[in-house]
Specification:
Elements lengths: L15 H8 L9 E3 L2 E4 L15 E4 L1 H4 L7 E4 L5 E5 L2 E5 L4 E5 L13 E2 L5 E4 L3 E7 L5 E8 L13 E5 L2 E5 L3 E5 L7 E6 L2 E7 L2 E6 L5 E4 L4 E4 L11 E6 L5 E5 L4 E4 L4 E2 L13 E7 L3 E6 L3 E6 L4 E6 L9 E6 L4 E6 L2 E6 L4 E3 L11 E6 L2 E6 L2 E7 L5 E6 L7 E7 L4 E6 L2 E5 L4 E3 L8 E3 L7 E6 L2 E8 L2 E8 L9 E3 L4 E5 L5 E5 L7 E4 L11 E5 L2 E6 L2 E6 L4 E4 L1 H6 L7 E7 L4 E6 L2 E6 L20 E4 L5 E5 L2 E5 L6 H6 L49 H11 L7
Antiparallel strand pairs: 1-2, 3-30, 4-5, 5-6, 6-7, 8-9, 9-10, 10-11, 12-13, 13-14, 14-15, 16-17, 17-18, 18-19, 20-21, 21-22, 22-23, 24-25, 25-26, 26-27, 28-29, 29-30, 31-57, 32-33, 33-34, 34-35, 36-37, 37-38, 38-39, 40-41, 41-42, 42-43, 44-45, 45-46, 46-47, 48-49, 49-50, 50-51, 52-53, 53-54, ...
Amino acid sequence: MAVARTLFPGNVVPRHTPFLAGLACVACLLGASRLPAQTQTLPAPPAGYVEAGVPEFAILSPEAIGLTGTPVDLKRLPDGRLVVASRREIAFGDGSRWDVFPEAPGSRHPDIESLMLDDSGALFATTGNGVARVIFNEQGRWSRQPEKQFPPTDGLPAPYLMFATRVADDWYWYGESGCITRWARGPDLQYLGSVNTISRLFGHAGRVYVSDHANGRLYHLDATGLRPVAIAAQDSPNFAVTGSAPFDEHRTLVTTLNAGLWLFDGSTFTAPPRAPLLQGGRQITALCALPGGTFVAAVESIGLVFFDRSGRILQMLGRNSDHRFAHVRQLVPGAPGELWAILRHGLARIAAPSPFSHLEALVENGFSFALPVRHRGRLWLCADGVAQRGEYDDDGRLVRFVVDNPPGRYIYQLFPDPEGDTLVATTDGGISLHRGAGWEPGPPAPTGLHIIPRHYGGSRWFYCAPGQIGWLSRESSTYRLEAVPSPQLSDTFGGLIDADQVVWLELGAGRVGRVDLRPPSLQLEIHDRAQGLPDSWAQLFLYRDQIRLSIAGTAMRFDPAAHRFVVDEEFARRFSQLVPGIDGRPTLDSANRLWAVANAALHVFDDHDDAHTSPSLPELYALRPSYTIPQEDGVLWFHRGNYLIRYDPASPSTSARHSAPSSAGSACPPTAGPCCRKPVASPTSAPPRTHCPSIIPPPARPWAPRSSSKHASAQTARGRRLARPE
């Protein structure tokens, strides 16, 4: 039997005082479809809906890397390490820890604007009028050793080369305007031609193209020079190409300065399916292909937009999450499931594509306790007594949650009634009903009422409230309560119905309520120490459709013959990692996996048979969910405190990120384009590798930030550790 390992320490054990108030909302879940072994299952959204939130990310300022200036270029070495250039500094690292090397004093070469990397890891940079290899000395400094010069210019000043681009097996060097050169045999670079302002060099179908930023014109670069590509309808600066990625065998997806996304086939631009945000009118500064047929574009003043081949937006990471995402200069794939972005001032490390996303940033009013429900196919939140409605764009993508609450009311529960096409809210002022046009008053009801259904749908449901139990029925367009006085019942914190049609109620420390629904009249039983319960909070859950308690670190079951609770020896044997130490409410998902918290860790078991497995989920950072909410389609929602995390095991990155070590070669997806800079053979006469700083290898968790990186990098940068040849 395998169990998930403990992830990162440091999460605080939940305190019951605020936790109890949150339990008042537990029944928000109970308008869910029936799943064997439990009832709290969220229906899946309608086909085509996208409900991913914000991906995990970490932003590294120049100071966190140990640099004195902002990064201008980033490359991934063949061994998985990263190299970052910043004018006159070069940093090597694994994404969390960095070694910084300054340029040797006395250099008259210009600042570095970009780097070129060969297949052995050797670095090259411009000297202004040529190209040099970057070498490291015994003092931990680097300098440029000239390798290629601009061809003789009959006494005229040589053009100022600044940037480098690799397309297929060729290296190109150019400035912001003017000439384009290529690495060639002999001592000189090959001059290919000149354009006004170079927007981007990119490859398509074995050919190389350059786009002129000044006028939008496109040129084909062949062995002898530039050849215009006549595309009259797109002869405008708006169509200057700013990014590219392979789309299929015959077309390349390109982004433009102000005309959105286009498909290029070598002679024409055609409009692909695309969301309004990507149709034009906004500058797009970078484009990158990701695994699973997805792409990411950097939209100026908006942020990163993740989309699929149909043009549908899947996820966004923008300035509402961090203002620095409003200006992205470059996108570079890292290890599997990892994307790097060069920002105006720093780097961003992003889990992309990621099975995990955060919904907190989409919630308008904030929360400390929030559980999702689904009404008319869309998400709502019951968050700290306030109803918040999910808003979706025209493509069905969840954009935000906005407050939509019965005026002046505290909500105890949101309960979807799909057959009545009504969202029912139990409040401190009776029942309120939402039928699409806003809230309207329902029948009078006691404060603190909770509806506890057996399954999704129906028209008659059990309810409980302080001082009474009974039935809530839908009759035509209204609802009616049939109350049974129960004076011994005070506050309730939700409940469940087992396979025997028995209702079980959470009543707090050392107390559980029981109501058998089969007799013609309802009668409440209170179980406490006399029925074997310890003096601790009894948390209810269903396992194989039978009631279980998580209480005092152990699991208990109800013994009908003795009419009391006893320790569940079979559960403890089957899930030995959970007992002792179990906490919270174990949950079965649609794949029959049991999710449970015990001993300060989240554990996952396959409950089909005794061959239990547990995936590693480092992205949760040791979060121990108070609630794990399964969805019919396999998605899981994790909630604790002010965290609401969506986990989609079907994400294309899940298997890659959890199986591939970060130090394994190139992370480029099979369809990735020039932005990946995958290692290929060096151009003719490219010099061999000499020195490259050797540091600690990348961690097994390829993108997770470490709190100590800033201090470690700063210490290393100032220590100027000796660079050793490899």
